[in-house]
Specification:
Length: 467
Amino acid sequence: MRSFRTRLALASAVLAGSALVGFGMTSWWLIYQAQVSRLDEAIANQLIRASRPRRHFPPSPRIFGIDEDTPIAVLVNDLDGNTVYKSANWSSELKVGGLLLSATEPKQDANIPPVDNASPNRLPPAPRFVTQRTSTATWRVGVASFPSNRIAIAVNLETIDGEMAVIRNIFLISIFIVLFLIAGGAWWLSGNALRPIGQLTEEIKQVTVKGLERRVPIGETDVEFVELIAVFNQMLESLQRSFKQASRFSGDAAHELKTPLAILQGELERTLQQAEPESQIQQSLSSLLDEVRRLSGIVRKLLLLSLADAGRMNLHRVEVNLSEILAQVEEDIELLAPHLKVQTEIAERLRVLGDRDLLTQVLQNLISNAIKYNLADGWIHIYARQQQATISISITNSSQGIIISDKERIFERFHRGDPARTRKVEGTGLGLSLSREIARAHGGDLILDSTSSERTTFTLKLPAWHR
């Protein structure tokens, strides 16, 4: 999943890293050039000193200002190109012949005082510098021409290269440390900047039909998020108002329909008793009575759902032995569906503290669905056990399976799934929704387990109760 916080930290690290790398490379190059320039100045001074007339040169000439451990080589030619002096460590791979021939004598200038009591009115020599590589080292070579000779001095750049390698390593380590600090700082800053979004997300997670009264406090929130939080709070207020109206309508309608339906059911039962047996009127009244009873069941479920939505489902809590209820349910299966194979594994003394009638209704509804949506020669498995503080009851039946789109909506109200499977099955689509609300009112839940193409499993979980 894409993360804005991660992208912000990485972008900050990349931008800062590019700037640091550019700065480091530029600084390294400037330091290197400064080192080479300082070396060139030392070589130029030594060229002037080496140009003085002398009978012999030392076997290991030194340059003032250069580390004594730095290898130095000297080559002196006369004006005809003959070698006057060559130090023992002068490499034959150093090619300075062209430089020596191209080196010119300095020009005279009356305004410049004489240098080193040499020929009067002469400018200091202008050396030429070049860097050459041999098979063993890199040399900085300086060449100058004087009235009596031409001199080349080569200095091994090993010391400078070593110093620059140390500086390069320091730069690399520093860049990585700074990048880590920048990425961490960007991560921390972005986390602080996005904290209101996180708070808003947590509040949204808490919003349910029972938590629509929640509001996100603005407090000291940054001004950029104030409008977003205000809009969200307005949305919650609108949702709460709309839900209350819908819930009130559903509850009021169900409550108002209870009395006329009860009267109608009573009148039909009384008239049915007075009708002539086996007559057409008796059959019609019997059909009407079945529909009225079905409608009464729907009204009762709607009333319970409206109470659950409003958080006012009244539970008459007593000690309930689920093992006994499941044993009764098993007997009901044998009467209602003798053609199905029933397998049970029910632990003893599965006790909860809850409403016996409502919990019985949940189990009967699950068994009813397992019978109605079963195969012709199918089976039903009932497993009930206690795991630590939770009682788990799984009811599995053979079936054609549930398609993916129906799995996501199976607990929606009035949803009855694929018409091809439910066309001949009676129902209103309220049973599973009501069963889950009853389970949650008891502190548990009702879930649809992963189903294959040959079975369907519903699992009821309730908190166990101990005396």
